Amino acid sequence: MNKIALITGGSRGIGAATAQLLAERGYDLCISFREREAEAHKVIAACGEFGVRAIAVQADIADETDVVRLFGEIDRQLGPLTALVNNAGMLLQQTRVEALTAERINRILQTNVTGTLLCCREAVRRMSTTRGGAGGAVVNVSSGASRSGSPNEYVDYAASKGAVDSLTIGLSKEVAAEGIRVNAVRPGLIHTDMHADGGEPGRVERLAPRIPLGRGGQDTEVAAAVAWLLSDEASFSTGTFIDVTGGL
Fold first, then answer.
1. Mean pLDDT value of segment 34-63
2. Residues identified as active-site
3. Which domains does the chain have, with CATH numbers?
4. How confident is the model at residue 202 (pLDDT cuts 50, 70, 90)?
């Protein structure tokens, strides 16, 4: 059976690196993107060089209609999904809890929690052996912030990733007997464009002295952990977390 993967938020950073690594390993794949269409198609072109089928679909995972349409496109263009990487996520300008608004909190939760849950729902409906599926694997991209709490910067983002951790544990137990493994990777300070979204492009460099390994991580290092959890080498791992944090 062909290995078919969906990587949400695959137009840049960890998502793009994961897409290219999975393509190299023979996965047909779909990446979703919300706004960066040109970047998404560059990733797809790079994946296609490995001789696999690769598509990009515009979708906002915070929108249930978009999520349903996204999975429908995979069904139509690629076939039965066997792997899901819940990578899409967002953070906003660094701030303290005392300055948060309900609008900001809900915006983050709708993408990082609701969107991730909706994607898991659609994947389970396709993968579960009780529904006629052949099984599969889900990897949720959480964050080291779920353990640190990210005080003075991103407590709302950290809280959303704490929810992703709980989702990983609960869903892994719920579908273990249905041929589906559910695990998570928790990146730490990784060199990606996401830090610019929070208003500090140089954040990794500022905080690198706190990291036991003395440097920020690379998106390819996180992608390698994701790929392992999806692989048959991790066949006895579910409800498991890999921290890619340099020891922080």
1. 96
2. 157
3. 4-244 (3.40.50.720)
4. confident
